[in-house]
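Exercise 7. Given the components listed, write out the predicted structure of the assembled complex. Treat all entries as one system.
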Amino acid sequence: MSTSTVTIGLLSFAHTHAETYAALLRDRGDVELVTCDPGPHAAGELRGAEAAAAWGVEHVGSVEELLARGLDAVVVASENARHRELVELALDAGCHVLCEKPLATSRDDAAAMRTAVERSGKFLMVAYPVRFSSAFGQLRDQVAQGRLGQLLSVRGANNGKLPTSRSWFTDPALAGGGALVDHVVHLADLLDVLTGGAQALTVSAVGNSLLHPGAAAETAGLVAITYPGGLVATFDCSWSEPESAPSWGGLSLTAAGTGGTVAVDVFGSKVRGLVSSSGLPVELAYGPDLDEAMLDTFLGAVRSGSAPQPDLEVGARTLSVVLAAQESYRTGRTVAVRPV
Amino acid sequence: MGRLERVQNTPLRIGLVGAGGIAGCHLPHLARLGAEVVVFSEAGAEELVARHGTGRVVGSLEELLAAVDVVDVITPTPTHTAVVTRALEAGKDVICEKPMARTADDAAALADLAERLGRRLYPAHVVRYFPEYAALHAAVHRGDLGELAVLRFTRSGAYPTRTPWFADVEASGGIVLDQMVHDIDIATWLAGPVVSVSAVSTHSAPGAGDGGEPAAAAHVLLTHAGGAVSQVNGFWGPAHLQFTTSFSVTGTAGSLEHSSAAERAVVTDLGAGPSDDDGAGALVPDTDPLDDPYFLELRELVAALRDGSTPRITAREGAEAVRVANAALEAARTGTTIRLIDRGARA
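Answer.
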């Protein structure tokens, strides 16, 4: 049973992770992959049948054609605002779903997706790869074992470059916002693990677009969050890594409690050096592929049929933090989180 | 004869008021600067003077004020206003440990009083003298980073348990006013006036730690007038916690970051030994004795008092740090975002 082939559809190449998923799923002996990247496609971006050919994966012309294959599961990697439509189609076609983060860009969309999960009896997993990191796993275990005592504070930074390979990332209508939606969800997911799924209580957010004045949404954001039980957290979700930086950015987290502190730098392991001619730094990042670890969990769940984590409810709780952060940034007030 | 000429031609006489935990970072440096130091404290003055082999103890603040030109106030925060006021009214220039006062109104009143009396008042914001922060400020001032956009500061160390007033938020302002006021001041120094403040804070439940050790944490978000945003994180934890700081500052032309834990000149792994008992739980960070920021600070402030030069910190800036820190306390307490009116507009 565990070696049987599962059939997986990859819906949309809008997200840059689609290429990673395509390559990982293509190279597995236990997966039969078919893809579909419905248009319209932004000019100048490698999309659709052309992309599939470049990646060496099968591509079909329509979502209906893909779903008519009777697949076991579907990976949705569309623009954030288009998750709902594809997720509903996939679930209603009897497929389990791995949905790129964030789950959705609105409360209504998330609620509709919850209904679709309940109606279909299939599961939805949200693509939060960082929680699969061993470094974060050590922190999770130390918190669970009580080594930190009463957990009081978490500060996280998830910084990256302004996303430029896909134009929709900086289009608030399709992305659901800017840096606040793109990176807050990752850190909110890690807090979700550490708190055992606690719903955040309040969020304050500040931001600006000083680093990228032409951007349509905020490119820098700082948030402060309260959780039940006296835990306070703060995130830096800014696209503050310059385009010229030697690596894409990173994600670090420091947890502090009455027992002490634990600092985790998830993508921090690098071989470092210099280019003699320019004096510019070289960083060779190394470490396990977290997308691969996440897909392992997803494919295992597709085989067993038992719903994996992080599930739709994690996606809903983390979305509630993002929506509160956006409201706080917009209004300049501290906002009580309304559960999604 | 003018007052400055007089003090230049005679040894500077400095009155140190207080003999608590930070006294060891003041008394020896004042002595090294050639000052005659007179010490008054409700407790610990004799021990302090004996420990450092310098200084003369007197029995009252009046006696101290009668014997000195300059007063260095290192008493607990809730007493700053009364002691500084008396020193200014006695015609002394004053150096005062941070925070300058417990409340924004008190701090502003001290700055006003100094101005009215023509006396100088310098709050001891020593982090401006730590070489990594001085280097950061110089780079920002030169324009190396362009326009600042995002700033992060962290400060983490052992919970101060030796004297109860530190942890008493009413008395000291707790972690926000005692510890995080340093980075609030640095953020303002670098990115300019703060227009809004939000904050979250927490404290351990009684008996939550091993042996009931307390811990406290707070996160403060600042929006500066120019649009830059700052995040200031503070943590007081168990006694074994090393004192660590970090910053990360990004502007339109570049970024600078520092971590005290990463930039250690000496890394030892010697097993348990007789020299191991002093490091953990320190109330002040490790510093290079050849580049001691407390010495650099007192040298600059004393020089300013002697020759009229301008030091890198003013009473107004000290008062502003207290105002922003108190806004953070209010933001955390009420769960709201606090908007600060312009200092100029208020006057």
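Discussion: The domain at 130-289+319-336 of chain A is CATH 3.30.360.10 (Dihydrodipicolinate Reductase; domain 2). Chain A has two domains: 6-127, 130-289+319-336.
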